[in-house]
Design goal:
Layout lengths: L2 H31 L11 E10 L4 E5 L5 E13 L12 E9 L2 E9 L6
Parallel strand pairs: 3-5
Antiparallel strand pairs: 1-2, 1-4, 2-3, 4-5
Length: 119
C-alpha cells in the first residue's frame, strides 16, 4: 500500500475518532448531572427542601425530590455553611446535609444552606 492511500484512510477515520473522543469525554459530565440526590456510598448526604425545623429537639426534616423524607439530628458539632444555627433555617429552603449513621439515627455532620435561585 502506498503512503498516499494510508494517509487517505487515516483522514477518513479522523472525524469519527474525534466524535467518539468527544462523546467519551463528555459522558462523565452528563452522568454527573443525573446522579441521585441521595448518596449511596460512604459519603452520605441528601439534598432537598426543609419540611420542618424542630430547634428544641435539634432535629431537621428534609424532603428530597423523589419524595423520600429524612429526619436528621443536629449535634453541637454539626458544621453550618450559609447559616449560623439550626434556628436560622425556614421551611422551604433548599439544603444539602452530610450525615453519619449511628444505629438507626442520622446525625448531621455538615448542613449547607443552598442559594435561593429565585426561579
Amino acid at each position: 500500500m502506498t503512503q498516499r492511500k494510508q494517509t487517505n484512510r487515516l483522514t477518513n477515520w479522523l472525524p469519527i475518532l474525534a466524535i467518539c473522543l468527544f462523546i467519551f469525554t463528555a459522558f462523565p459530565v452528563v452522568a454527573q448531572n443525573t446522579v441521585s440526590e441521595i448518596s449511596t456510598n460512604e459519603a452520605l448526604y441528601i439534598k432537598g427542601s426543609v419540611r420542618k425545623v424542630a430547634a428544641e429537639k435539634n432535629t431537621i426534616f428534609v424532603k428530597v425530590s423523589q419524595g423520600e423524607k429524612f429526619q436528621l439530628l443536629v449535634a453541637p458539632q454539626t458544621d453550618f455553611v450559609g447559616i449560623s444555627s439550626l434556628a436560622d433555617l425556614q421551611k422551604g429552603q433548599q439544603v444539602k446535609v452530610w450525615y453519619s449513621l449511628v444505629g438507626e439515627e442520622k446525625r448531621a455532620v455538615k448542613l449547607e444552606l443552598l442559594p435561593d435561585l429565585g426561579c
